[in-house]
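re: ur question from yesterday

yeah so i grabbed the chain u mentioned. its 423 aa long if i counted rite. heres the sequnce exactly as i have it in my notes:
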Amino acid sequence: MPVWLREYSWRQTSTAVYLSLPLRGVRVTPANIFCTDQYLKVSVPPFLFEAILYAPIDDTNSTAKIGNGAIFFTLYKKEVSMWDSLTLANADKEKLQYLRENAVLKAHEKAKEETEAKKVTKQEHKKYALEATMKLEEAERTRIEDLKEQVRQKVTKELALWNKQQKDAEKVKRGQKEGELYQGGEQVKEKKKEKMNKARIPNEGTSKTRLKPPQGHGSYSMFSEHLKEEQLPAPRSAATIKISFTSRVFPTALRESRLAEEEEWLRKQAEARRTVSADLSELEDLKEEEKNPDWLKDKGNKMFATGNYLAAVSAYNLAVRLNNKLPVLYLNRAACHLKLRNLHKAIEDCSKALELLTPPVPDNENARVKAHVRRGTAFCQLELYAEGLQDYEAALKIDPKNETIEKDAEKIRHLIQGTSQDS
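ran it thru and got these structure tokens back, copy pasting raw so excuse formatting
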């Protein structure tokens, strides 16, 4: 049989009700608290507290803080007014049962709506990510096509210019050959006339005999051979053509490459090889699986679960040396530093993890929330409450429905207010 809690204290303003419920000797979690707009229940076996509130409240913004053997509720009123009492007075059992069942029904409907809203939001995020990826691929495809078109136009222009130069050179050569043929033909005619004049009979009056020019194929062949000897050009001078190729690491042509990105990739590869081979003497004694960052991460997680934080830090340190681009390694090592009170190192690891968790996308929301919360915790333990509050508020922007983070942020605000009032 439950023990009903009758001892509690409360106060109110026109906008909110502040309720303090003592619960000593028991462990209270948020799962033990149930609240709707007009119904409040705290069930921590063997204790039970139930209240039908005097008027409706805003259960979404209302908060409950657990600590020091008590629960402190901040209930915001839906309407600005002053209550005559905390609970609804003079309510019969049937009305109380109806309000109780109605509260449970509303809670189930609200949970169902939140689940559906999360599904819709997740689908929207996936759709947005897919559309963004398609746009990037389309832009890249367009860029490559434009680059190919520019190269094609350039090569076409160069080819057309080369063809024009070749045609001009052929015209010049043809003109020179025609001139040489004309001059050679004139010389042959002159020599032929001289021969004919020498072969004539001196007394032209008595003898009309003329020396006929030779006809037939034989004379034509001699003439053409003579012309060939006259027109034959000099041999071309020998020369050596040197062809040099651009040195390339990648198999693609230089005109189709993305030189800046390739150089960045090569630099990162060289840096990774230097990191792995920097302490080769230490890595020689390790087993093959011990050189795997994922295996080391799992080992560090097991050490952290057993409370061996120093061993977990050692595993994460070696994993970071092997691969310093995994944000989860810095996040897990920051958790170990928090346990060991190495607060400055925890802040450094969280900051490094946030640098690697870019760009901010739905897939890395949880990791970014952890990084902000752990860095904010370290700041608060160093009594840098303003910096800690900034990290908690950043985490709330990413996950606004996280009640635990909201409660911790509210505590930090109270601490900052108290510090400013004391000063």
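noticed a couple things. The chain has three domains: 3-89, 91-176, 292-417. also The two ends are 51 Å apart (CA to CA).
anyway ttyl
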